[in-house]
Amino acid sequence: MLDSETTGVGVLTRQRLGMQQLSPHGLSETWALGFCGDIHWQMLSGASGQESFGFRAADGLPIYAAFCATRIDLTPSQGLLGADLTIRSRLASLGGTRIGSRHEFRQGRQVIGSLLMLSTFVAHDETASNRRIVRAMPERDCVLPEAGIALKELDARARSVSRTLRGQRVEEGVGITPNPSLDFNAVGLLYFVSFTRLVESTAQTVDGVRAREIVYLGNLDQGETVKVQRSGTEALVAREDGHIIAQIAEVR
User: Is the pLDDT of residue 3 over 60?
Assistant: First the structure.
């Protein structure tokens, strides 16, 4: 069962929890990311005055709302199969083309998780390579309320990570080749949820994640291999040439 109600820059969604939405530890992290990613794009489309996810620049070229950072916090929960979940989502501006959303997960009166998402608009350059993603301006403006402190702090951390890791390289790590049919999205980019799957596949524990924050710094072309380098509660994902495309921090 799925019921969604849009109110301005907010969406209230009710979801019956089944196998797809759950993991052995409670709410499924990858489902929550993908589902709320669609809600983020839905709210962004509505705020821009359009019905589809097909954003365009002023010259008519297609552009995409790509995620810069996400942070998910989950409370270990049991007995959720068949329960009703309520997701309250709100969209807000962080200045320029950076737009954030906050999603709160409730089962009954209990908050069992939250998710922060930060996006900006990007486009392929003339090479059409995922290695050459550039910032873009949408043809339509949207007026949004100012982001709250949690989104602002995520934005500040993401910018700090980007500055710190600029020019650094990863020399060693676990090699994984993303699957073109499973890990890339409709426009051919490595799907942001796939970063979570890739780094989680290198975890040395079966304990569930209570919080995971990812800063997305780049992408790669289909057929390429990534290197995942772990150090304690942090990890880096890099292309074959060592260029870092994501930084992950987690709490278990």
Answer: no
Q: Which residues contact 48 (CB under 8 A, 6 or more apart)?
A: 55, 138, 140, 141, 142
Three-state DSSP at 47 gives helix
CA–CA gap between residue 16 and residue 27 (Å, rounded): 12
Residue tagged 């995942």 (tokens): 228
- CATH class of domain segment(s) 2-251: alpha beta
| Rounded alpha-carbon distances, angstroms, from residue 8 to 115, 207, 221, 229 | 19, 39, 37, 42
User: Domain map of the chain by residue range?
Assistant: 2-251
* 35: helix, strand or coil: helix
Enumerate residues 6+ apart whose C-beta is below 8 A from 215.
Answer: 68, 69, 157, 158, 161, 162, 246, 247, 248
Task: Please count the other Cβ atoms lying within 10 Å of the Cβ belonging to residue 221.
Answer: 16
Q: Does this model's pTM top 0.85?
A: yes
Measured between alpha carbons, how far is 207 from 218 in angstroms, rounded to an integer?
A: 28
pLDDT recorded at residue 224: 97
Question: From CA 118, how far away is CA 138, in angstroms rounded?
Answer: 16
Question: With contact defined as beta carbons under 8 Å apart, do 87 and 13 qualify?
Answer: yes
Sequence-separated contacts (24+) of 51-55 with Cβ below 8 Å? 55/121, 55/138
Name beta bridge partners: 69: 118, 215
Binning pLDDT at 50, 70 and 90, where does residue 54 land? Answer: confident
